[in-house]
UniProtKB/TrEMBL annotation:
All copies of domain HTH gntR-type, residue ranges: 6-74
Keyword DNA-binding found: yes
Biological source species: Deinococcus humi
Keywords tagged on the record: DNA-binding, Transcription, Transcription regulation
Gene Ontology molecular function, alphabetical: DNA binding; DNA-binding transcription factor activity
Keyword Transcription included in the entry's annotation: yes
Highest taxon of source: Bacteria
Protein name: DNA-binding FadR family transcriptional regulator
Gene3D superfamilies assigned: GntR ligand-binding domain-like, Winged helix-like DNA-binding domain superfamily/Winged helix DNA-binding domain
Amino acid sequence: MTTKSISRRHLVQSELTRRIVTGHVSPLSRLPKETELAEEFDVSRVVIREAMKVLAEKGLIEIQQGRGTTVNPAHRWNPMDPQVLMHLGNGSSFYTVQAELLEARMVFEVKLAGLAATRMTDRDLGHMENLLRTMDQYLDDPDRFSELDAEFHVTLIQGGKNAILAKLLEPVHDLLKVGFQQTILKPGAAQQAQVFHWAIFDGLKRRDPVATQEAVQRHLIRAQENLQALGEWLNPTREGSSA
């Protein structure tokens, strides 16, 4: 498949993902036929078929030979897919996924942080310190800060020097980035996060597993509190509505 075809396929599957996840296409309804979609997007039927395969891999649709393509209910979607999570936006599903991710991070990130305190090289620590100093310069730029925030936590995970765990956790990387793009919106969130990041780095630099794990745990507990507060801040209860 040519680069141009891949680009068109990405455009089609991105738009259809948006329509499905945001509710513009209802669960259990049928998508238009290949010929209709090909005409709408001005692409070949081959491009449409490739896009459908991607949507099926995300759990968004079910392709039934001779019976058309049906939109799956939300519980069958892949919540770890970055595009799915992005289009969930600030809805309840987004917060459910992020809350569950924080629970998971309490298990694996705290443990790996302890390993990182004894396994990170001086070069690793130098990279992390440079990363933190760069983050200090982007406290008022949510998009850039969220990218660097995700890189910080990926660096911490990789610092545990456990190749199997690092590989297993690769799908989490994009999920972290998408989540940070939302949770960093609350005023003061970036500044608060940096205090915890520097505390984590201090534990790593002192080669103190206990201090590092405690710093990560405090960071994640505060992140859980902030996630709940962010939901209330972005979606305040309407005045006069029932509790």
